[in-house]
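A quick aside before the break. I want you to see a complete sequence-to-structure record at least once, exactly as it would be stored in a machine-readable document. Don't worry about memorizing anything.
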Amino acid sequence: MTMFQPIGAASDRVIATLVAGLEIEFGRGAGEALAQRFLEAEKSDFLWDARVSERWLGGYQAQDEEGFELDRVAIIGRLDGCWFVAVSIVDGDGNAQGLTGRRSFRSERRAREAFAATH
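That is the input. The structure line, written in C-alpha cells, reads:
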C-alpha cells in the first residue's frame, strides 16, 4: 500500500522528531532551542530538502571555488509550519551549497507570488 503526504506535513514531522530526540538526549525544554540552532546551522540543507518546487535562475560564480559549476535556484516550500521562498546555491550533483536569500510567509498564496517574482 502506498501512502502520500504533502511535503509540508513531512517537514513538520521532521522538526517534531528532531525536537523529541534532542529532549531525550539533553532534557525536557532544551529540545526546541537546540533544534532551532541545528536548523540555523544546516539551513540550506533543510530548506532544499523541504522544497515543493524549484526554478533554475542561472549560474553562480563562487568567489573561492574554481572549477566548480554552481547554479542559483529559486525554491519554495514549507518547513516548521511556515512557507518560505529562497534562492539556493546548488552544485552539479543537486546538493545545496548555501543560500543567497530567504523569506518566510504565513500563506501559500503569498509564497507562490514571491516565488513567481524571484529572479
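Two observations worth writing down. The first strand starts at residue 51 and ends at 60. Residues 65 and 91 are 11 Å apart (CA to CA). We'll return to this after the break.
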